[in-house]
Amino acid sequence: MNIDDVKKLTSSFLFQNYSREEICFERGEGEYLYDSEGNAYLDLVAGIAVNVLGHCHPSVVDTVCGQVKRLVHVSNLYQIREQAELAESIASITPSTLSASLFVNSGAEANEAALKLAVKHTGRSRFVAARNSFHGRTAASLSATGQPKYHLGFEPLILPAFEFIDYGNSEQLKNAVNSGTAAVILEPIQGEGGIIVPPADFMRTARDVCDDSGAMLILDEVQTGLGRTGKMFAFEHFGIVPDAMTLAKALGGGFPIGALVTSREISKTFVPGSHGSTFGGNPFVSAVAKTVISTIKADHLVERSAEMGRKWISKLGSLPLEKGHVDEIRGKGLMIGIEMGDEAKRLQKYAFAQRILVNVCAGSVVRLVPPLIVAEESIDRFNDVLMSFVSSSS
Q: Which structural domains are found in the chain, ordered by start?
């Protein structure tokens, strides 16, 4: 089936709620995707920070093939060995206070569960979130998302329980949190908002005000977790530990899974009937996620992300990039944003023509979130394309 046939089916039978590129990929291997004609594209999007091991990693393929022959799904009415083993794997990489996991199917669901947990655990009804944030598209997670453009048309579903502060503003945060606050929910680094790294004192303030008020601190590690920023979890950059965190994206290595992780004590807030998921943590996806974690650990990909990210940001900073084309380079690990204003989408198209996939977020930021296995030669290839773009645009 060629691209025109795929587009015809897409236009005939799918919701038209995505702006899709004019390409259809047939297979993937490592950091490359291949179209129907066999052309290789360097993938610096990784399914939007999902494919941390690259495409079709041998360990994941082996797990998938073995598990699908054995057991794919049973409900949470029964004990699930693979799910229990995955929870143990997560506990092996988290601070000791974060030792209990609840599995769902996505980051939005994980955030929804976290917000429900906070209300039930604290008995309170108010939340503090950040402007420019993104936490998902289900009702409560959308309400926590501090970007009005995502609310448009869904106003009847937006909950009035959220007060928004400027991301990184410690004084606003102190003034917003009080005895009625159930939780503060933040991304440790804003992803969809444009790869925004907050001041260290902001995250420490978040921890302090939650301790003082009795509110929970929920950190959304959906995009930042599992090595993306050069730490296993981005909150480690700030020397704090949340009361709860949410995971997804990288956790399944391409298969849908999300997790809410909290302390054993807080987890007791949910009793049978409090919350649930038909598919969450089924044997198949749990086995895959366990393999993703073990591979990240065995291949030292967290350390690799830190090293490659430092090199990449350093190389980008040393390029003779003209102001007006590139305004700022920011990020941590292999989560890098290039602020380019109106030029961002033009670079995206230019790179695509060179068979390099990048993504634009916040309208003006080229987001680089490649597989954690990305080669240094691939980084240099993108840098060359960036320089070529800037030169041709001058």
A: 3-56+300-393 (3.90.1150.10), 71-298 (3.40.640.10)
